């Protein structure tokens, strides 16, 4: 549901209810990109495959963290409103190491080096496809404590990124340029190589 303007929530017991009403949680999210550019994904709320949620107070951002050991992983399902670059910032501390994949592709390096029980942040700029993207943190050894993943879309053009259109390349074999396909996306109309 999307609400505009002030909203008042009322929770009441119906006459037919016996006992207490138990509310697990209510998640509210501001859906205004001009106000909120980053999305925060708490590790303890991600899909945990062998990794465990830890709710001890450690100075984390949310209610808990995810503890990841060798062979265990945490999967985030990251929503991107459009194709483009985003910064992925992982907040963690460790006595081990973990690797990261985005849509099956490994990021160079990993989550390690935050020794001494201090929180550290590693930020990687990646290209996300419009829709849902799969980000997996997998333990390689020891234990990594993951607090959260913050995803911030990059708005400005990237000076270190060059775009090459397929139809501008050297065609070989049976390749040919075609405009027979309607390639309208983000107001970009062009040709393809088939």
Please describe what this structure looks like.
- It is a single chain.
- The chain contains no helices and 13 strands.
- The protein is 0% helix and 40% strand.
- The chain has 194 residues and is an all-beta fold.
- Strands 1, 3, 4, 6, 9 and 11 form a 6-stranded antiparallel β-sheet that branches. Strands 2-5-10-7-8 form a 5-stranded antiparallel β-sheet, with no helix packed on it. Strands 12-13 form a two-stranded antiparallel ribbon.
- A hairpin with a 2-residue loop joins β7 and β8.
- The mean pLDDT is 79.
- It folds into 2 domains: 115 residues, Jelly Rolls (Sandwich), CATH 2.60.120.260; 31 residues, no CATH class.
Brief overview, please?
This protein is mainly beta.
CATH class of the largest domain: Mainly Beta
Order of helix and strand elements from N to C terminus: EEEEEEEEEEEEE
Strand content: 35-45%
**What is the residue-averaged pLDDT?**
79
User: Can you summarize the main beta sheet?
Assistant: 6 strands, antiparallel
How far apart, in Å, are the first and last alpha carbons?
42 Å
Number of domains: 2
Q: What percent of residues adopt helix (DSSP H or I)?
A: under 10%
CATH architecture of the largest domain: Sandwich
Give the total of beta strands: 13
Our count of helices gives: 0
Low-confidence stretches are: none
User: What is the structural class?
Assistant: mainly beta
CATH homologous superfamily (4th level) name of the largest domain = Galactose-binding domain-like
Cα Rg: 22 Å
Oligomer: single chain
CATH topology description of the largest domain: Jelly Rolls
Q: How would you sum up the global shape?
A: globular
